[in-house]
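Q: I have 121 residues here and want to know how they pack in 3D. Can you give me a structure?
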Amino acid sequence: MQRDVADPALYVGTWLREYDDGPVHVRRVLALDAGGKFHEASRITEAGAPQIEHTGEGEWLFDGTNLKRRYTRVDGHGPSAPVVPFATFELRFPSRNEFIGLDRVRHVEISYRRVEDGAEP
């Protein structure tokens, strides 16, 4: 069933992405607010290694096809090279509580599911 992607309620809220990359587990929480701001917090764990946490914040918009984020802060500082301060994903909504994003530049597909506001990475 195709969702009305123009409905801002599809985007606003808190979203969780979890995945494993070999022995590394990543948990990322993305909060999109109605005013066009976002906050992202990530936790990276690997057996026998210290836990790593990262944060990002900035502005987001949906252009009818793509969710676009422009980072204005990364780990409390303004972004600098080699960090790319933009993320763009073409979105599909299999349901109201999940989305799949395709990064056509890096050829990466991601998935997020809606979680309660205040969720921790």
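Q: Anything worth noting?
A: Strands lie at 13-21, 24-32, 37-46, 52-62, 66-74, 86-95, 98-103, 108-115. The chain is about 0% helix and 60% strand.
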